[in-house]
Amino acid sequence: MLNIALFGPPGSGKGTQSRKLIEAYGLVYISTGDLLREELQEGSELGRQAREIIEKGGLVSDEIIVQIIEKKIEMNAESNGFLFDGFPRTWVQAYILEGLLVRMHTELMSLFSLQVPEEECLKRLLERARTSGRSDDTEPVIRYRLREYQEKTAPVAEFYEEKGIYDPVDGTGEVDAVFGRIQASIESMLRKKRLNVVLLGYPGAGRSTQARMLAERYNLGYLSTGELLHDEVRRETNVGKRIATMLERGALVPDEIVIRLIERELRSHPESNGFLFQGFPRTVVQAYILDGLLLKQGSSVSLILDIEVPHLELVKRLAKRAETDRARPYDRSTDTIVQRLEEHQRKTVPVAEYYGKSRLIYKVPGSGPPDEIFKKLCIYVEEAFKRVR
Q: How many CB atoms lie within 10 A of CB 217?
């Protein structure tokens, strides 16, 4: 999902560039002023609350603004992305937007700031005033608006500079030339955009087989927490010795250790197109952790695929696996198999519900030949690649 913010002083051509970006990338336009006017015209509850504040001479609160933006995003959750025009306007609103996008399992890719000298903006606006007949666009008023813009947006620019996604763009020259500069930056970002896939499913659903096939097909780093833990034990590292002791006692390996291993793995595949997570997250808490880990890398979860297999078939598959060298400890009896399935239902099914709110999750029938299931999964992965790039 391509989410960008476009800033620029009055007269910088922000409106023109917004229209070109929306058309080129199929983005949904988000302007708090426009959205607020829509709510007022519709007479919605949010519009009613805003009107009461405005009629008293007050400013509409960030609480109402963020609800209006969230409503717009949820109504267009399947879009290619969003163009935020003039939002966030303050340092506080920058944090609000961060939290809102994290909740939607996405992020702001860049804030483009059109750089146009004050005298050039003044010249453009005075010309516009002359041709449009706007008597309020006088030189003192325009200079005040330009000064106010610089004072208010400076903290926002600093916020995104620290995040490394602030992109000043020369806004002078022909319209198409300015657009070309923005587009070149976007295309460069999209080439670096990674696809992160979470593969869910009950034990016996074939996750491991499908995960490896998908990782190989799409050049994704394969990340299985179970295999990471066992590799540490096998190599007898200091961490591995601690893990071995825990496993011998039947204790769960704490998330603190798992997080460190995942962080290391995320750094170890710089040439991959992204990552495929198999066996993580297993709990809603770990889903939050994964969001945080990817956000730290400047990324996010792109796609969740939940392989669905009838429970009776799962039991049959696991019982059959017990007769092979691929048998797991819980494959040895029907009782342990059922216990494992019940544990998954209690702890991991809520993870699918958690991701269900993001509309990034797709349920894929897992009965039938592995190659047929793989083809179904590939369709969703390829569609996700188109969305992120």
A: 13
Q: 192, 227, 255: which is the final residue of a domain? A: 192
Count of CA atoms in the C-beta half-sphere (13 A) of 317 = 18
Residue 25 CB-density burial (10 A; 0-12 exposed, 13-18 middle, 19+ buried) = middle
Q: What is the pLDDT of residue 327?
A: 61
Note whether residue 34 is domain-resident. Answer: no
The boundaries of the domain holding residue 345 are 195-388
| pLDDT (0 to 100) of residue 222 | 95
Judgement on whether residues 234 and 287 belong to the same structural domain of the protein = yes
Euclidean distance between CA atoms 245 and 359, whole angstroms: 40
Q: Which residues, in sequence order, are CB contacts of 65 under 8 Å at separation 6+?
A: 32, 36, 87, 93
Contact 8, 171 (CB under 8 A): yes
Q: Which pLDDT belongs to residue 324?
A: 76
Mean pLDDT by runs of 10 across the 389 residues of the chain is 90 93 93 87 87 79 87 84 89 88 82 94 88 75 88 86 93 95 89 88 91 94 92 92 83 87 89 91 91 84 93 86 69 75 84 82 93 95 79
152, 89 in Cβ contact below 8 A? yes
Tell whether 280 and 330 lie within a shared domain.
yes
The predicted pLDDT at position 363 comes to 93
What CATH number is attached to the domain comprising 141? 3.40.50.300
Determine contact, residues 47/39, Cβ cutoff 8 Å: yes
pLDDT at 161: 92
Q: Helix count (H) and strand count (E) of the chain? A: 17, 10
The answer to the question of residue 115 being in a domain is: yes
Tokens in use for 85?
């025009």
Judge if 116 and 7 occupy the same domain.
yes
Residue 190: the pLDDT is 79
Residue 44 lies in a domain: no
Question: In this structure, is residue 55 part of a structural domain?
Answer: no
225 closest CA partner among 255, 246, 203: 255
Please check whether residues 285 and 350 belong to one and the same domain.
yes
For residues 215 and 128, state if they share a domain.
no
